[in-house]
Design a protein that fits this description.
- By secondary structure, this protein is of the alpha+beta class.
- The chain folds into 2 domains: 46 residues; 136 residues.
- Helix content is 43%, strand content 28%.
- The chain contains 5 helices and 12 strands.
- It has a 5-stranded antiparallel sheet with strand order 2-1-7-10-9.
- Strand 9 and strand 10 form a beta hairpin.
- The longest helix is centred in the N-terminal third of the chain and has 35 residues.
- 16% of the residues are buried.
Length: 257
Amino acid sequence: MWLLSKKFARPSKSDVAAPIAGVVAASCASMALFASVLFGGVAAAQSEDDSLAGLPVTVENTFASDELTDGEEIVFGSEGPIKVGSAVEFAACCDDFYDIDVASDRITMTWVGGEEFARTIEAGTFDRYRFTVIGATFADAAADPDQPLVPEVTFFANSISVKISEGDEVGPGQDAVILIDPIVTAESRSAAMADAVDDAAEDDDAADDEAAADDELETLPRTGRTTEVVTGVGLFVLALGLISYGVGNRARRLELV
């Protein structure tokens, strides 16, 4: 009877509180661990490593001169998009003046233009290079003051402008390094890669359309026999017309007689 009374007896508050407190504590610990994993993962995804590797980069070169362009800034050349990698992205860029290598912390511009173009940039003249990395924004960018060429650098949210202007020396050995501080997140990288895939698909479609147009042109006759055939058909039609005219005219004459 004692054992039965102990089994079915109503527990006291202290007997119930102890295990409930343990369950609550365990639940709180589990929730805290889940939250740390969740928000820690989000933070890691947002910060990532700020590497530009694999992201598409473009460069546009513009030029202005009071003497040559009446002060108007004109597009002189552009290249890209090219994925950032270990090789030089823009070799002999924009009419063979610079090798341009893009890395995650710098843009290196090495002169390859030859001795004949070496000079001091004239008054009222500037040469600008604008870099855009798709999928990255920039927290900072500045020319390395220890390099032979120290151009004027301006950075925007998604691009960097490098302006070589009046008084700057250009020529062999006059190279520049632009120190950059990019920001790349998992989301921006993913969006950039998706855009690159879409652009590649559009380029493939355009190439297919061009190839189809070329194939259609290839099916048309391109030999001198084309002219001969057209001429023969024309003469045949003309002969039929003359015959018809002669027959009709003769019939009218017979009617008159």
